[in-house]
Amino acid sequence: MDIDNIIDNIYPLPEKSKTLLKENIYEITYPKAHVLFKANRIESTMYFIKKGIVRAYANPGDEEITFWFGKEGDAVISMKNYVENQKGYETIELLESCDLYKLNTEHLRKLFSEDIHVANWGRKFAEQELIKVEERLIFRQCRTAMERYKELMATDPELLQRVQLGHIASYLGMTQVSLSRIRAELK
Amino acid sequence: MDIDNIIDNIYPLPEKSKTLLKENIYEITYPKAHVLFKANRIESTMYFIKKGIVRAYANPGDEEITFWFGKEGDAVISMKNYVENQKGYETIELLESCDLYKLNTEHLRKLFSEDIHVANWGRKFAEQELIKVEERLIFRQCRTAMERYKELMATDPELLQRVQLGHIASYLGMTQVSLSRIRAELK
DNA sequence: TTAATTTTTTATCATTTGTAAAATTTTTAC
DNA sequence: GTAAAAATTTTACAAATGATAAAAAATTAA
Fold first, then answer.
1. Which residues have CB under 8 Å from A68's CB, separation 6+?
2. N- or C-end of chain B: fewer Cβ atoms within 10 A?
3. What is the CATH number of domain B3-135?
4. Would you say the C-beta of B141 is within 7 Å of strand C?
5. A91 Cβ partners below 8 Å, 6+ apart?
6. pLDDT tens digit string along A124-183?
7. In Å, how far is B26's CA from the nearest CA of chain A?
């Protein structure tokens, strides 16, 4: 998905504001397994995914907890980084080789304070992410592991094709063994 | 917590913008059990809590899923309502008699398009909510029911004093019986 | 206060999920 | 293509959690 579509899907910008925003964006390609954000670091970048798929995981203790997948059209940010300019709690790695649009968040913040259209674009962006996260939170609360898997199959079957099951299991809040058992039961 | 503090904690506004925003806000008190938002309705209000505590739940009728508690200083919105002007999925009810600040979201949207400071205030508001929701999402993923309960005790012990355990259990993704068992074990 | 209602706890048993280890399949590197 | 590594599935068993019912405790209302 190209950058004009990504920007306009969030909130259509007048040409002048869009130009200002795009001045600050360039394309870059990274190989599979590249790490975009490391936990406990302050970064001032964000990305949009032109092509590919990535995952975010937190690591409280030792056990990786995958809590997000991003694919074509999605924004990739480290939340604390983006919002508060503080150390992020997540690591984000590429699950496939990816074509990305990269932008500098300090520059973006400057535009927020100078251009009301970009400010509202940033507002819409946060609001849309907010809805997505809250819906995932509620969905996650759904009863059984089986129901959570079925729900994912229904809403995002593509994910199951593109991401290895260990990560899916973590994302769904169960062990890989549990997921495997559930899949066997559904055959 | 009074409205000036609530507004400024989100993002300090210049006096003129703050006046515009506050023109649109008034105080109101409702008794315990009053419902602020009903699921499947379009509303154009939001609230800030001056005093009291509320909960949001999805699935009214069927099995209620409590996914949020709000208390002094928190904003109360129905997400789909606020962001997309569409039917909300949650019901929000007062768990105590509450003093609230009420405002109209259509008026707020108008200010977003007219005043860059208010637009950035709205952006900051969404961003801060976003961090809170994502942190809850990750926290919810904590392995065992026991761990989730301990985590809540550590991060928000006050909640356990003010909210009945049935709601807490739902919030933590377990049955009330399970929660009771865990509490007994910890004595 | 007493009675009624709601909330919490306790007990039992069934089911689900986790742990560990081995077997199988798939992917990667040479 | 083959060997090594990684990912997935399977199995057996243990632990955690859920469902249900009923008792105890706490709260609310008359």
1. A55, A56, A90, A171
2. C
3. 2.60.120.10
4. no
5. A35, A37, A38, A39, A56, A57, A58, A59
6. 999 999 999 999 998 888 678 999 999 999 999 999 999 999 999 999 999 999 999 999
7. 24
- B153: helix, strand or coil: helix
Do residues B100 and B50 lie in contact, with contact meaning Cβ atoms separated by under 8 Å? Answer: yes
Amino acid at the residue B88: G
Q: How many CB pairs under 8 A join A and B?
A: 96
Q: Are B36 and B97 in contact (CB under 8 A)?
A: no
Backbone angles phi, psi at B99, to 5 degrees: -95, 125
On chain B, the residues whose CB falls within 8 A of the CB of A140 are 137, 140-141, 173
Whole-model pTM: value is 0.93
Alpha helix segments (H runs only) across chain B: 3-10, 15-22, 79-84, 105-114, 116-140, 145-155, 157-162, 165-171, 176-185
Strand C reaches within 7 A of the B143 CB:
yes
- Condensed to tens digits (0 to 9), the pLDDT of residues A87-126 reads 999 999 999 999 999 999 999 999 999 999 999 999 999 9
